[in-house]
Amino acid sequence: MLIGHDGHPQVGFMVRALPTATALAFEALLINRIWRCNPVNWRYRCLGLDYGQVQMVDQPAGAFLMFRRSVWEQLGGFDESFYPLWFEDVDFCKRAKDFGYRMYYVPNAVAKHVGCHSIVKIPVVDRQLYWYGGFLRYTDKHLQFWRNKMVYISVVAGCLARMIMISAKSGSLRPMSIYSRVIYLAVRRMFAVRRVEAK
């Protein structure tokens, strides 16, 4: 169980389901922020979970993830193509599940998690590129062809919406330079030849 600086469990973060194409599209399109309790987000963020019970889950947060060394060695650790951060823990959990391992949420194991100490040192432009880079890398690796195309289109549409909203609110054109780089990344991946990944 991850406890935030307010002393409450970090519901919606500390345990999640593995992301589906729809969950990723909703995330990219800001639907999960605007309509937090939509059914897709409810399932993805495990908002209906009884956090007082030990139970099997898909994806404990990487901030407090424990596993046997033999599992780490069998899976080859984190995939370093998720460089420098974001989604490497999600990928690890997905691969572990594909190998038949089970993950559990254990409420008696408690850690305080404030977060963002290292992230705030990363320039905003790079932060967005790294987050979307991991997001798109996960999409490439684990979603089937048409599903990942749907996610790419959602990223482009979501970034266009963010560019307009943030630029209008801030009176600055800087968001355009940030999100245009993400759009370029998504479009480039959309039309790239897909390689078969070893899992």
Describe this structure in words.
The protein is mainly α and 199 residues long. It has one domain (2-190). Helix content is 49%, strand content 7%. The chain contains eight helices and six strands; from the N terminus they run ββαααββααββααα. A two-stranded parallel ribbon has the order 1-6. A two-stranded antiparallel ribbon has the order 2-4. Strands 3-5 form a two-stranded antiparallel ribbon. Helix 1 packs parallel to helix 7 (145-170) and helix 6 packs parallel to helix 8 (174-190). The longest helix has 26 residues, at 145-170. The protein is globular, with a radius of gyration of 17 Å.
Portion of residues in helices? 40-55%
Number of helices: 8
Strand tally: 6
SSE order, one letter for each helix or strand? EEHHHEEHHEEHHH
What portion of the residues fall into strands of 2 or more residues?
Answer: 5-15%
Q: Show unreliable segments.
A: none
For the largest beta-sheet, the strand count, sense and barrel status come to:
2 strands, parallel
Class by alpha and beta content = mainly alpha
N- and C-termini, Cα separation: 29 Å
| Coarse morphology | globular
- As laid out across the biggest beta sheet, the strand order is 1-6
Average pLDDT figure: 92
Query: How many domains comprise the coordinates?
Result: 1
Cα gyration radius (Å): 17 Å
